[in-house]
Amino acid sequence: MPPDNPIRRYKDFVAGNSTGLRGLLRDGAVTGLSMGRSIANSTGWIRFPYYHHVFDDERHGFARQIDYLKRFGDIIRLSDAVAMLESGDPIDGRYFCITFDDGFKNCLTNAVPILDEKNASASFFLPTSYIDTDVVADRDQLLGFFDHRQLLVEFLSWSDCREMIGANMEIGSHTVNHARLADLDDEKAREEMAVSKAIIEENTGAPCQHFCPPFGIPGNDFLPERDPDLARETGYRSVLSGSRGAMYQGGAPYMIQRDHFLANWGNSQLRYFLSR
Length: 276
Prior knowledge:
Blueprint: H1 10-13, H2 18-33, E1 45-47, E2 49-51, H3 59-72, E3 74-75, H4 78-87, E4 94-96, E5 98-101, H5 106-117, E6 122-126, H6 139-143, H7 158-166, E7 170-173, H8 186-204, E8 210-211, H9 227-234, E9 238-239, E10 247-248, E11 259-260, H10 267-274
Parallel strand pairs: 1-4, 2-5, 2-11, 3-4, 5-6, 6-7, 8-9
Antiparallel strand pairs: 1-10
Helix pairs in contact: 3-5, 8-9
């Protein structure tokens, strides 16, 4: 692949990857399991759908998913969702708070226009050492982002991030180096949180209040007995994990559960995961 030709289609992103076949098998099973389920059967919660990308061939699916979510609840900003959890008050209704990890440029080119059109907001978690990279000069660094495959995906610039903030989006930290915090000692983990926060605030002029540990599984990828406390001490208001589930009244802002989505999933897959 030429260095100035980053991947723009999900079809190319998964080409030759065995996860594509596994995904088709899983999708069929989930479609069957979703029968008889309904998101409308429960209330009093906030769900946090999260994505990594909206490639060019995922735009239609993402737009459809936003419409689907809005049928069942309100889409709110992350800071508002955290404030609801912090208050301890009953959650009156159903709410969705959308987030994105990794800082891919297609979030700006594809996701943000759809969100703006549908009067919805989202938060984007950035690994700061990858922001403002150049697809030619920094090719080796970009190819190294996916440790399992050599894929060239374009990342956001700081100008992009400021544009997103101007469009009512929020920016959070995903560490400096996309680091697995569980592999780091206390000092290094704190440094990843503090330095990334400072870099984001310096380059955007906006407060960085929310933190998302890369990979996201408590006990495997970050330490739930340590890292939420480090985040609080560093000045973050929340920590978002990769564990599925809803957040209810009194839920901990420093251990928010999220539901991973792909933008090309059908409504039956959303129904299955959001009704569990």
